[in-house]
Amino acid sequence: MKTMRRREMLRLASAAGIVGGFGKLSFAEKSKSFPDKFLWGCATASYQVEGNNTNTDLWLMEHLPGSMFKEPSGDACDHYHLYAQDISMLADLGFNSYRFSLEWSRIEPEEGFFSNAELEHYRRMLAACHEHHLTPLLTYSHFSLPRWFAMKGGWANAKSADLFARFCEKATQHLGDLVGYASTLNEPDVPQLLKWFDLPGTPAGMTIDQMFQASLAQVRKQVNAPEFANLFVGDGKTVRDGLLAAHTKGMAAMKSVRSEMPVGFNLAMSDDQPAPEDSHLAEKRADVYAPWLDAAKHCDYLGVQTYSRSIVAKKDLPPPKGAELTQTGMEFYPDCVEHVVRYASKETGVPIFVTENGIATEDDSRRVEYVQRALAGLKRAIDDGVDVRGYIAWSLMDNFEWMSGYEPKFGMVAVDLKTQKRTIKPSAAILGNIARRNAL
Length: 440
Ligand code: BGC
Description:
alpha/beta
């Protein structure tokens, strides 16, 4: 595929009526400006876009009879081979950063055996970012795990933190000089969050977490591994403690190799609001976020990832009646960004990056409105002094949305899964132009 030429992107953006001049900014425009060096980007995760990550816990689970995955990930967006054109497309669109992740199972396919060739692959990706003046934000672990690691209990294995730290050390030795911002873990609070979360489509009365746990015994039997566990299936609290230790040891390992490399992690945060009656908001915050917000205080930054709000009673209530819903059943609620960055900054005092935000929709005009309103809120927070350093949209491309397969469309760029042709949506051109101007 040819990357989209600048002229074509401008045509798209002005068709959407949002492009101003690229020259000097007027006073009114300046007041819409974001701070200098603000990072604008899109995010992906290796498992969701690379394709053929056959050596992972998730690939295994996708192919089990009665799998909880709607469909297998297969070739995904073949980003493993097409990364160069995808990275150049991101730069052509006007962005100045790219968030992506390492696939641990490629780098350490067997316990203690590290592949230089795969490390070189990720080095080429980082180099491509620099070549295109994109600051790379690199996540070391985004949900998927090496099969051998999951077979031994995943994050519930007492040795998991040391195993992860060794991987972090090796990867940093090989890649650290090219990393802009490193993250140990993507959304390590998910095991706890799922206990509160209720999405349409789960069997009556069950949280997603209960649904996953119900299948754990069956999965263990099917893969003939009595200890098998990962981020989604396993005992939530043990998994959480394993992840906390892994983050701490992983970060120390990274810093031991490259002390000046900024390290943080990415936290899933709903915009939690109290239900009018019987609200357990404080309990939810203590259960899900508190240990991680504490951990963030020792980091160089915190990445927050937010999509919507939750009205918290004993559990999260379903979205209000009549609310506009996205393809994943969440309420269309772009103000979550403003509320979450204010909360995360107040609790931690460290610089904040929005490292994921977006919606699943077939109607890109809803994405455009969502992003514009999210950014207006983000700007209000920044104007009030909240230290936010970047906005990274989820996601660069339509991709493999875990158990939901390819149906939810989070991408700013559409992907034809047969031909791997990329088609830029207006939202990508619009956000890219905001990035180029560094102003709304
Ligand atoms: C995850 C992504 C996921 C996105 C949309 C986040 O929880 O980090 O991997 O695709 O949300 O559901």
